[in-house]
UniProtKB/TrEMBL annotation, chain A:
It comes from Ferrovum myxofaciens. The active site is at K78, S153, S177. The lineage of its organism: Bacteria, Pseudomonadati, Pseudomonadota, Betaproteobacteria, Ferrovales. Keywords: ATP-binding, Ligase, Nucleotide-binding, Protein biosynthesis, Transferase. Its EC number is 6.3.5.7. It catalyses: L-glutamyl-tRNA(Gln) + L-glutamine + ATP + H2O = L-glutaminyl-tRNA(Gln) + L-glutamate + ADP + phosphate + H(+). PANTHER family: GLUTAMYL-TRNA(GLN) AMIDOTRANSFERASE SUBUNIT A, TRANSAMIDASE. This is Glutamyl-tRNA(Gln) amidotransferase subunit A. The keyword Transport does not apply. It comes from the Bacteria. Pfam families: Amidase. One of its GO terms (cellular component) is glutamyl-tRNA(Gln) amidotransferase complex. GO terms for biological process: translation. Residues 24-466 form the Amidase domain.
UniProtKB/TrEMBL annotation, chain B:
This is Aspartyl/glutamyl-tRNA(Asn/Gln) amidotransferase subunit C. The keyword Ligase applies. Pfam families: GatC. Keywords: ATP-binding, Ligase, Nucleotide-binding, Protein biosynthesis, Transferase.
Amino acid sequence: MNLDDTSLRMLCAGLRERTFSSEELTQAYLQRIEQYNTRLGCFITVDPERSLSQARAADIRLARGEGGPLLGIPVAHKDIFCTEGWLTTCGSRMLSNFVAPYDAHVIQRFKEAGSVILGKTNMDEFAMGSSNETSFYGPVHNPWQLTHVPGGSSGGSAAAVAARLAPLATATDTGGSIRQPAAFCGISGLKPTYGRVSRYGMIAFASSLDQGGLMAPSAADLAWSLGTLTGFDERDATSVARPEEDFGAQLEHSLEGLRIGLPRQYFGSGIAPGVAQAVEEALRVYESRGARLVEVDLPHSELSVPVYYVLAPAEASSNLSRYDGVRYGWRASQYGDLNEMIARSRAEGFGAEVKLRILTGAYVLSQGYYDAYYLQAQRVRRLIQQDFLQAFEQCDVLMGPTTPSTAFRFGDKGSDPVQMYLSDIFTIGVNLAGLPGMSIPVGFDGQGLPVGLQLIGPHFSEARLLAVAHGYQQATDWHARVPGRGEQA
Amino acid sequence: MSDSLNESSLRHLARLACIELSAEELDRLPARFHSILGLIDRLQQVDTQGVKPLAQSFDLTLRLRDDEITTRDQRAQFQSLAPEVADGLYLVPRVIE
């Protein structure tokens, strides 16, 4: 079994034809995790016995001829999804003792599909970060160059998929947390339309922006598995009822006549030359396959970062008020009265970035500032959404670099938080507008680090996005490249 | 529009957020805050006259459901996660003497 050169379709066929069992497949991935996880830090929790017992259960179903596309397939889950009986930390000390008492909707859907839980992946604390440096459980290392960050917040999932420690991983995206690490690690990632995937049991950061999604080597793998996690769930008030779609069946779609919008603002100054070049070359590939490039305008896109850093901390300060050391989570050992118990538990349980964002949220929501910051940010959010909707009158899909640069070195962004925030300039607008977005690998820069191309579509256009990404991956092999995982180091 | 944050306003925010700040944090945070305020203050220059705030990416109307019991009693399971419980109650320091 060559895990470096496989696809979900091939793994599924292998399981069906009994070339290998789910137990053997799971064991093979667990061995890789055992071999590389110390170096890469992708997983917070692995539980081989439990994974193997799920695999054996899948093998029984396979023997009966049962099951769908993910039966017996091992999947890594971001540690933000509550997983019954598994430690679910959200990258925080606050939840370092939290064994989830129930399954998130996403986990439940994967279980029903008969997939195997391979482990829980590392992430920035409460998904607040773009480098995986804020995790209480230590950083994740980029498998292309261990001295560099994998991106964040879904850095563990991204690095695990890139290093082929898992064939598929779940992830979440509030401001770019799927697309940016996918770009930094050279894999394919999809953030679905807001409302596509239930947020039930997904630990909340900024509820109007959070959305669960997937990471895998190729768009074909994503299409293979997306149907498993989409669909209406009444436990999430923002879940949207849509007719079921077969994303895999819509994958083969000609690129002839496709109108690709290039937002002027995504091709300005400040893009690293290696990124600009790889993106240009990818656009040439699309052109050579019959697509047409149209320049479009997103005049408010520069404001997406300031809007986000009002709205996301505001929502976070409210969501994270639940961590009080009373019902679950970290409680300080020394305290006097109730207020001190809560304030100290939160002081000890949260890391520096989480505290900074909660305080920012408290600030923008506080008396005298609410209208000027919070409501004003929501108004500008509408302007940003309108920009996108207008752009889609002239094109079918938007493209541009996922990130201004490739993966940076640990500590490179220094102590000024805004330096880190600005690296999400191209991804944040998509969340504010609730649109689906993808990142796919389109080459490498001069340092050998992967470059991501971002694809953005109108609401609920995932099938089209996947087909557009797949069309590119039919013509190129960047998605099939596998990193050295620090082997030479 | 924002005045830069001094130590006493930072203490006030920390009280609102129920987070105890160390001396080191009180020292380090103002510079970081200053940088964030510089970023978000850019919104003040945007003309948004007549623009309706957008709270969700769709203007959703929240659904209502029938008032039926849909979950089973999980108190014991949930309380097994709590730092301190007794007789089915969560324990915290005494608030009324």
